[in-house]
Amino acid sequence: MKTEYKNKYRISYTQVDQNTKLSLVEAFYLIQNMMTEYFESFKSDNIRIKKYNKAIWVLSKTKVHFNKYPIWKDVIKGRSYTTKVKPVRIETETSFKDDKKDETLFIARQETCLIDLETRKIRKLETVNYPDNMETEKSEIQEQYLRLNEEFTSKDFKYEQKIYSTDIDYSRHTNNVAYVKYISNTLSCDFFDKYEISDFEIHFINESKEGETLQIYKKEKDNNLMEFVIKEKEKEIVRVKLKYRELN
Question: Range of 33's domain?
Fold first, then answer.
């Protein structure tokens, strides 16, 4: 079964940052929407498998590379496809191109697995409504996922963030994009006047839920790199590494 999903989007005013470029957070929302619609196209979205299979899809890793950010009123075209299928996980990619020039603006590689709603343990793909003959395409992102193992101390602590109902998604845990927002909150407007994110990799380690309070840690490194960890007390929730570049 060969599938792909395509859609076009016009960048709206509410999606752009102070420089009228698509914001980092909104870029992740676009990726999430594309992936949700892609899974819905072959009837394996979270609404269906939660209802019929008592499971949900969860992301374990996302790696995004930005070549160029679209700006307000730009029309971009997205495409989602599968690159690898394993018994307990799948890998997919979602790319966005300029509708006129057909150049790749940004592309995301993602690793997804199934979690049982009752046991919260990983389920095999064969236990839910997922195509058993899904064809795969060659990955456009050749770089492997990073090993995120930086040590953080109290000196790296930045702020606390309580999780509210507006952070919760259909899976009843904190929406993945909310973590991107928490990370972005450690970067100032002055930063985004001088730099832009070129690469953003996030590993989802544990779930967090409404009412919990998260601690965000940040460490600046050489070569325009930053690493982050978000914790709930001593439990690690996500780890992030980003790379940034100077604006032209």
Answer: 1-145
